[in-house]
Amino acid sequence: MIRYAIKEDAPRILQLIKDLAEYEKAPDDAVATLEQIEDSLFSPNPHAFCHVVEVDGTVIGISIWFLNYSTWLGKPGIYLEDLYVDPAHRGKGFGLSLLKELARICIERKYERLQWWVLDWNEPSIEFYKSLGAEAMDEWTVYRVSADALKKLAASS
Fold first, then answer.
1. Contact, 13 vs 41, CB < 8 A?
2. Given 4, 69, 79, 129, which residue is catalytic?
3. Is 69 a catalytic residue?
4. In CATH, which superfamily holds the domain spanning 2-155?
5. Which residues form a coiled coil (predicted)?
6. Would you give per-residue pLDDT tens digits along the chain (157 residues)?
7. Using CB atoms within 10 A of its CB, is residue 143 exposed (0-12), middle (13-18) or buried (19+)?
């Protein structure tokens, strides 16, 4: 069953985020707290949204997403931050079902894009995404300013 997450799901969502960080070989980078997840997803003005897959009363998969915006199209889209299914439940179509739900939301709300990043070494996911018609945006390079560089930029005059 796919549904919007509820606040009671937050501890399991956080665990799956940590499991994803472990899978992506960056377990120490996942520093979000339960309180941050609850605030980000379940406050009156959430910063992000989450769908879960539930099997036999247990959340086994998540999609965490937020709206982005294309100035060229003049329309919002969905940016998928995390898509993760517990390894014991992979290969059963749950990841595809989560993506279908986000695609349905895009069509229903007239959003033009559903996009995400994938690590370049994650061949199983890349092949899965290609099978859905997803295209790599290889001509774009992602840049990030964070930590001390972010503070320095903010303080510069």
1. yes
2. 129
3. no
4. Gcn5-related N-acetyltransferase (GNAT) (3.40.630.30)
5. none
6. 999 999 999 999 999 999 999 999 999 999 999 999 999 999 999 999 999 999 999 999 999 999 999 999 999 999 999 999 999 999 999 999 999 999 999 999 999 999 999 999 999 999 999 999 999 999 999 999 999 999 999 999 8
7. exposed
